[in-house]
Specification:
By secondary structure, the protein is of the alpha+beta class. The chain has 20 helices and 35 strands.
């Protein structure tokens, strides 16, 4: 017999070799129908995998993230099986579950897949679902795996197998399809009820632009047809909110092939929006005693060798810049923190000088592969709202919690109410990925966990997601469509101060090494603005929007009055446009509502005579007429109240 411990702490005994499905059946038949995978000692397992030792077991349903992962991982295999039947010469790369659905990288040879082919693949998937094919796990030796996939001419799989250690290799088989895979998976294909192939894109094998480009086939599945229908409706709404589409409509930003891929050009309206966000954060930082600094866009290669960035990212970054001076090399700045470490070193520091908070809206450059670029969310040049806090170990927790407060202020001001915190720690099985001593990592990880506990901030722990120099606290925000985005981040770092030889004189008159906190509440201005556009559908808060008011004269006879009103509002720092086109007023109203301008002012004979404006508010319609001064007071008060809601 083995002892099974459940999440509530209760313990029951079962025969050795019992499966998670049998455990579920022993509790209730309804539960057995709802579970799709299990967590055994913290690892996600197939329901049909035997448990041979005392274990902690949690039964996973669709609503559990790990359950969805197993469901969509099995769905990727189902799609691959359907492709194999329809395209016998197709060769398979990898097919993981992703946040929403799954994909499979496939080499279709000379028969590329088009959107018109998707229904046939979906039909075949449904046929395989109806067969209720069992999904069977099998351990296999490395030599047998190489032989099996080699005989099938599956070169991509053979390459993957060569990188694996013997004794760790498993396959999963359903029907005539066998895949190299760690799992976990559903017990059989009948669990999958609704399927949809979403799109196809190019993807270089193993992310290497020098390797062959495969077809990345994206799909999604659900346990109910209604869930799929709701998701597809959500996708249509997401298309309407796409920041690339709205950014073009509102003339916020653009890209130019002549400038280069992944290098955004900020247009006047977008620049206004961005600068207003920067000014907002600068105002908050001033309250929290930050000092603003500025650093160059490049740095000597040795700077990033010292920091460790060159060793970790050098191969995948922009290549060194060579000057006429022999052996002189520079890099486009991939991070701001090495520069800030050098600022710290300019003068001797005492414990009385700490904490030192250095902030910079610093533009950095990372070489993203062209296939990975996506609007403002994945670019090659972006600006971080970066700051680095140098403090004593005793000050660390208090400083960390102050940064959390700043992030909460920003989320509240911009109506990001739905978010969760994630503590990103080292991968305990792969510590060579990280720099620094074991002691430093233990202290840094403990500091973040303790700070979250003290703040009463629930945070899930993710192993392997830490930065190479330290653990971090990431904030995952859900937008208006329920999509998760990683925005604000706080990182604790004992390592860079050591590598740069930073020190301060303590109260004991001895030299000590400070602790460093990296923080970026927005993350990057580009990504944050992309998320903000999609969250608001381009209807920005009044204090932030590039254009607050548009004045629309009923006819050209009232253009002069419209210009007088505009001049008055601009003197009151109200951002104002005039639409004096020779169009009917109904057309002007419709056009300017599409531009998402919060206030539309109609002026005609009556308004000109009484020094008034007829007010329409975006989404609320006609608000009646009022004096220009009254309107100016109201809009200024509304914007000020929204912008300063945090400072009470």
């Amino acid at each position: 017999m083995i002892k099974i411990t459940f999440p509530d702490g209760s313990v029951r005994e079962f025969p050795k070799g019992t499966t998670s499905m049998q455990i579920a059946e022993s509790i209730s038949s309804r539960l057995a129908q709802e579970v799709i995978a299990s967590s055994v000692n913290g690892q996600t397992w197939d329901l049909t995998r035997p448990i041979d030792e005392d274990s902690t077991v949690s039964l996973l349903k669709w609503d559990d993230e790990e359950g969805k992962h197993a469901y969509w991982h099995s769905s990727a295999h189902l799609m691959a099986e359907a492709v194999q039947e329809l395209y016998p010469h197709a060769k398979f790369g990898i097919g993981p579950a992703i946040e929403n659905g799954f994909y499979y990288d496939i080499d279709f040879g000379d028969t590329p897949v088009k959107d018109a082919d998707f229904p046939a693949i979906e039909k075949k998937m449904k046929e395989l679902i109806a067969n209720k094919e069992a999904i069977v796990r099998k351990s296999i030796s490395k030599s047998d795996a190489l032989k099996m996939f080699g005989e099938r001419n599956e070169g991509y799989k053979v390459e993957l197998i060569n990188d694996l250690a013997d004794g760790t290799i498993t396959t999963y088989t359903q029907g005539s399809f066998t895949d190299l895979c760690r799992g976990p998976h559903l017990p059989n294909t009948s669990y999958i009820k609704a399927v949809k192939i979403l799109s196809a894109a190019g993807a270089y094998w193993r992310g290497d632009e020098k390797r062959k480009q495969l077809t990345r086939l994206y799909g999604i599945t659900f346990p109910k047809q209604k869930m799929l229908d709701d998701y597809l409706t959500l996708l249509e709404e997401a298309k309407k909110r796409d920041h690339r589409k709205i950014g073009k409509e509102l003339e916020l930003f653009a890209f130019s092939q002549n400038v280069g891929q992944g290098l955004p050009l900020w247009l006047p309206r977008g620049t206004q929006l961005r600068l207003r966000l920067e000014d907002f954060l600068k105002k908050i930082q001033k309250q929290f005693d930050y000092d603003q600094v500025m650093t160059p866009h490049i740095g000597a290669k040795q700077l990033y060798v010292t920091s460790g960035h060159y060793a970790k990212y050098g191969k995948d970054s922009f290549q060194p810049i060579h000057t006429p001076e022999e052996n002189e090399e520079f890099l486009l700045k991939p991070m701001n923190c090495p520069h800030h470490c050098e600022i710290y070193k300019v003068i001797p520091r005492s414990y009385k000088d700490l904490p030192l908070r250095l902030a910079e809206f610093g533009t950095v450059y990372r070489y993203e592969q062209s296939g990975e670029l996506h609007g403002l969310t994945r670019v090659r040049g972006f600006t971080q709202d970066d700051a680095h806090i140098f403090c004593t170990p005793d000050q660390l927790k208090a400083e960390f919690l102050k940064v959390v407060d700043i992030i909460f202020i920003i989320f509240k001001a911009l109506d990001f109410e739905n978010f969760e915190a994630q503590i990103s720690l080292r991968d305990p099985e792969n510590k060579e990925k990280y720099i620094g001593s074991e002691e430093n990592w233990q202290k840094a990880e403990a500091a973040i966990i303790e700070a979250c506990q003290e703040k009463g901030l629930p945070a899930r722990i993710e192993l392997g997601e830490a930065a190479f120099y330290g653990p971090k606290l990431d904030f995952m925000v859900k937008d208006a469509l329920g999509r998760r985005w990683q925005l604000g981040t706080i990182q604790v770092d004992y390592n860079l101060p050591e590598r740069f030889g930073l020190e301060y004189t303590g109260a004991d008159n001895q030299k000590h090494c400070p602790v460093m906190i990296h923080r970026a509440p927005f993350g990057s201005m580009e990504r944050f603005i992309a998320v903000l556009i999609e969250h608001t559908a381009g209807k920005f808060p009044l204090w932030l929007t590039p254009d607050q008011v548009v004045i629309m004269p009923i006819s050209e006879k009232f253009n002069d009055y419209a210009h007088r009103v505009a001049a008055f509002l601009k003197r009151r720092d109200i951002r104002t446009l005039i639409d004096d086109r020779n169009e009917k007023i109904g057309r002007k109203i419709r056009d300017n509502e599409l531009k998402r301008i919060p206030y539309l002012l109609v002026v005609g004979e009556k308004e000109a005579e009484s020094e008034e404006v007829s007010v329409r508010k975006q989404g609320e319609g006609d608000k009646g007429s009022m004096k220009i001064t009254t309107f100016a007071d109201q809009i200024a008060e509304e914007a000020e109240k929204m912008m300063n809601a945090w400072n009470k």
